[in-house]
Amino acid sequence: MTFSLVVRDGERFGIVASSSSPAVAARVAHLRPGVGAAASQNITDPTLGTSLLEGLADHGDAERALAGVTGAARNAKSIAYRQLTVVGRSGPGFAHSGTHTLGRYASATAEGAVAAGNMLCGEHIPGVLLDAYSAATGELEERLVIALKAAVAAGGEEGPVHSAGLAVVADVAWRVTDLRVDWADDPVDRLVELLAVWLPQRDDYVRRGLDPASAPSYGVPGDL
């Protein structure tokens, strides 16, 4: 149902994901500036993503944060149904895939990155995500979308995907990029189109939040 990539890029953290189910990014993507990023997928419990970030905020150790969530007594009856990934401020990414993860599933980790998926066409898909991201150039958002496109081209899920999303946090207290296609026949292509509109304006919107007097206006009625 879902494949995702979670990364650290300097002081930034990013997530990209796609799924056959609707509104994937609204449910699986969890990021906190200066702390880390996590994905909670496969029969999703979004509270687990929050718990992973709380662990990272407390001690900064991604492996320990994941162990704290998967080993918690309150999650004992359900953790076998969850697939989780997490990246902190240092070290590699870490992943958990419970024994009841749906269909063909897999994960792959690297320094500052982790990819995972379920209901996959093949176990190679997480590796494709990591390899394509590593080989890509450009802004973090662009590299994440390149990786997602590569995963879809390599087979992606067993069936067609219908939603996709991209989120990035940096050095302000909100998501500097938060793009979603919640239901479409071509969600990844639509996400690419959204990014092309958003990316040239991203930093201007950060300036609007920090210093509205110096931020540019786009000259439209009700300009926000």
UniProtKB/TrEMBL annotation:
It comes from the Bacteria. InterPro entries: DUF1028 (IPR010430), Ntn_hydrolases_N (IPR029055). Pfam families: DUF1028. This is DUF1028 domain-containing protein.
